[in-house]
Specification:
The chain has helices at about 30-45, 65-70, 75-95, 110-120, 145-150, 155-165, 170-175, 185-195, 195-200, 205-215, 220-235, 240-250, and strands at about 5-10, 15-20, 50-55, 100-105, 105-110, 120-125, 130, 165-170, 180-185. The chain is an alpha/beta fold.
Amino acid sequence: MMTEAVKYEKKDSIAFISMNRPEKRNALSIEMANGFVEALKDAESDPVVKAVIISGEGKIFSAGGDLEVLHTLDNSVKIMEYMKQAMEIIKVIRELDKYVISAVHGFAAGAGFSIAVAADFVVAKKDAAFVCSFTNVGIIPDLGLVKKLTDNLPSAVAKEWISSGRQVPAEEAYHRGIVNQLTEGDVLEAAEEYAGFIVNGPPLANKFVKHMVNHADEWSSGTNDLQETAIQTLLLQSEDNKEGIRAFFEKRKPAFKGE
């Protein structure tokens, strides 16, 4: 596609985006960050695509930031630019109108951990692991990982995962609610199968559900109620809603079009 560091493929209604630096354990370079964002935006603008699956080529999902690149960043301006480009991946995943699923195998470490759990859903190999490896090089987690873990784990557990830098088995992450599904088989196939409820679901409703859940902690109850009322008023006039009602009475599965 736009760069060899990122692969983009489309199958039916699913866009597959994979980090493609297996020789570097999919370490996050500037080229990869830019390609990742471009691929996500391409999926966003494609009306056929209803779900996005992100993964890593080779033996692991991602080892995180490219230390060889980071080692060359010798001033605040260069560091800030690198961080800004990397953070754009997380921002785009969060604000994408379509659901994103991460398919994790091997391990997701450092910024790779951040990217994996920035997705709306995580499907992982049963023998995979997640690692907050930032402490190994004397820094804190970045790309939104501190908030993600704090929002989803007891504070003591979040601090332990971050400060110990230990490998967190996928099974433990699953029981903590960080992973949605475990698989012993091919993780991409499992992620594609998992995406079934998204692909067959109503795209407009899914878009608004993602937006409302992602921003729920920013709103008061009154603001939330107003958002629900406005969005429901819009959706009750959509073709998807009419199709859903027809399908209900005709005792068949609805064929939603996102209209």
